[in-house]
Amino acid sequence: MRGLHRASATLLVALVPAAAGAQPFYGYAFDGEGPGYPLSLPQTLRATIVVPLAVKPVPRPNTLAELYPALAACWRPPAILEDASNVEITARLSLRRDGSLLGPPRITYARGVGPKTRPTLVHATIDGLNRCLPAQITPGLGRAIAGRPVALRFVYRKVTANRPG
């Protein structure tokens, strides 16, 4: 019974608003009435793209679904992938309103290559992003994504001639 009271007290303390100044300040969203609501931290925009692309992306992306292929369009498989059949690499980056990079992209995950060939894959991925940047995006999309982290996962599957499908 004592554990139930302790859990209830913990829940009540968690639900009570923090004292003014105790919360980190991220800004406020205003709906026209009242003092406004605190904003949360931005969420990461995520996508998985099979590369190289099968179709050409739109020239000026206006949506996230159009942006991801536009960012992946310049990725080329490096020569080291001739023997690899299942490679994945994730790049994390942020863009400004005009589609240019906000800081350098970072590689957060790589799979399917050995430790000796990983740097080549990393450089090929960053070079591919640099060839496609700044992204020629619409002003509306630029406002929506400015400063938000984008995690773009490139998936390379080598197709073999004797594989059915």
What secondary-structure arrangement, pairings included, does this model have?
Layout: H1 2-15, E1 28-29, E2 37-38, E3 45-51, H2 64-72, E4 86-94, E5 106-111, H3 118-132, H4 139-145, E6 149-157
Parallel strand pairs: 3-6
Antiparallel strand pairs: 1-2, 4-5, 4-6
Question: How would you summarize what this structure contains?
Answer:
The chain has 165 residues and is an alpha+beta fold. 27% of the residues lie in helices and 21% in strands.
Name the quaternary structure. Answer: single chain
Task: Spell the H/E element sequence.
Answer: HEEEHEEHHE
Strand content: 15-25%
Q: Strand order across the biggest sheet?
A: 3-6-4-5
Class based on secondary structure composition and strand pairing? alpha+beta
Determine the mean pLDDT.
Answer: 80
User: What global shape is seen?
Assistant: globular
The end-to-end span amounts to: 62 Å
Low-confidence stretches: 7-29
Task: Give the number of DSSP strands.
Answer: 6
Instruction: Please count the helical segments.
Output: 4
Please give the share of residues in helix: 25-40%
From the alpha-carbon coordinates, what is the Rg to the nearest angstrom? Answer: 22 Å
Tell me about the biggest sheet? 4 strands, mixed
